[in-house]
What does this fold into?
Amino acid sequence: MNIRRSAATLAAATVVLGAAVPAVAATPSPTPSVAIPDGLYGTADPTYDGVWRQSLALLAQRTTGFTPAADAVGWLAGQQCASGAFAAFRADTAKACDAKLMVDTNSTAAAVQALAALGGHGAATQKAVAWLKSVQNADGGWGYTPGGASDTNSTSVVAGALAAAGQQPSTVRKAGKSPYDALVKLSLPCDRNGGGAFAYQPDKKGALAANADATAAGVLGALGKGFVTTAGKTSADGACAPADAGTPGTLARNGAEWLAGSVGTTGHLKSVLPGAEDQPDYGNTADAVVALAAQGRTAQAEKPLAWLEKNSAAWAEQSGPAAYAQLIFAAHAMGADPRHFGGTDLVALLNATGPAPQAAAKATGADTAADEKKDTSDSPFGVWWTVGVFLVAGIGIGFLISGRKRRQP
It folds into this structure.
């Protein structure tokens, strides 16, 4: 989950590969076109990723034992529209949201995950979830904007939001279709090139092309997990299996198998800008670590995690809060200490980009045990299936901005 990816992609002039922004990652602007609001993390222009990066920052702080500052939480909560939706950024929250303001599923879902984790925002999160349900597509998935064609990244981040809000994604249906049905249609058949991976969306001819960012997102979506997770039960290597003949767990295994092969040689994923040479994609690599760990492929996630520890510091410093959050999520998923990440204290650096949080009380043994039980249990999607049957090209939101429209490789 890196920079979120769609509207921002169209608007951004330059990109930071794999930065943490909804679908598109824009290079931090030295002269933001809008004033940076009090309470917001980061100093880059928030027009296309304000809510996204704030949500990731607060969620990362909560995950590492901090209580985010009240003004930081208040800024995020204050971005919500009366409909329950969130836009990427509202400069004037005293003005009611209108048809000219582009609200989106990615910003809304990210905010839900953050506010649900923080607690005390039940009414806001349920209102946001109601809005997300209202814009679900007939195929069971979601696009970046209401009415847009379903894509893997948006469908998956919404699934994570539903789960964070206490709802079973597989039971959220439109025209009889669940998020899982949409993901099946976005996964590449085993007998195709890139079989087992996910595409962002079909191309104009309806063809699917393997996309690393979408695959990392799709694995989490199929597992019914959000940005924050710990390692699942150890999963052995396995041949690609027909997704439409199995369970949501089959989708996750197929995607993780493809990711493992993609990072196995160099330890990182690559991203290509038009006319440019291959470059490391830090954000997508971090997302791949989270996805592999969630699926129980921790052995295959060790190499990319080590690569990130050695090489990601400069990228995170340039990209800002969402990038630090992505790295924290990767470390957390693997049981590594984000305060000692290749000689870097990711937590301190994240906290320094905005209002200082407070250290939270250490979780009780009961809380820790409950978390471990939750994280190592079978995928919610797998259980539900059994019972009732889930800012410019080359970014890696892996799940982070996306105003985002991911390009197909």
Observations:
- The radius of gyration is 19 Å.
